[in-house]
Amino acid sequence: MARQASSVPFGYVPEDERKDKRGTVWVYDSFETFGEQQLAALIHMAEEKTVARLVFYPLHEETLKRMGDREAAPYFRRVEELEALLERLPSETETVIDRFEGKRKKYTPADTAFRYLADKYSGPHFIWVTLDMANKLASFDSFEPWIKKVRLWIDMPAGASSSELHPRLQTTDHRWDAVQ
Questions:
Q1: Cα 163 from Cα 128, distance rounded (Å)
Q2: Cα 47 to the chain's mean position, in Å?
Q3: Considering the entire predicted model, what is its pTM?
Q4: Domain ranges, ordered by start, for the chain
């Protein structure tokens, strides 16, 4: 492929692309106990870090059963409650509810979900999870390759200590931030 010469005016300085909003936060949760306080903290951190998009990824009941949560509300009821919550708290950051698990209607491994989200949404990628979900994700074998590609935002309850974290999370503490 031949190169073409281009000319720019003297003193031209290209705009810094890092000033624009970029990246995607995947909110990977069941959304059963997700409330306005958590959403407000999440939106605040996303705007502080100048993230372009928040993608809410509600987990299907079958996925939650495999992860140990036996009594989950139906998927579509949780999605409707999430939509109502997002309407009550508007944000400057673009918000999307991804219904991939609702279409599959079966267990979706975290690795498959993350690959799907990485292919669909532009990077850099961040994953917002609760402390319980972070410990579950860290227990999977696929955690090691994914923690190198994404950064975790862990919703830490007040008074939580590092002893409550999975050992893999303790060794990769430079790859996650606490959201409070």
A1: 20
A2: 14
A3: 0.84
A4: 21-179
Which one is the CATH code of 21-179: 3.40.50.2300, 3.40.50.620, 3.40.50.2000, 3.40.190.10? Answer: 3.40.50.620
- Those residues whose C-beta lies under 8 Å from the C-beta of residue 111, and which sit 6 or more positions away, are 140, 142, 146
SS3 content of the chain, % helix, strand, coil (to 5): 45, 15, 40
- Confidence band (pLDDT; 50, 70, 90) for 2? low
Q: Which two tokens stand for residue 150?
A: 């994404």
Q: Tokens standing for 126?
A: 């961040």
20/29 Cα distance (integer angstroms): 28
Sign of CA dihedral 170, 58, 51, 46: negative
Helical (H) or strand (E) element with 56: strand 53-58
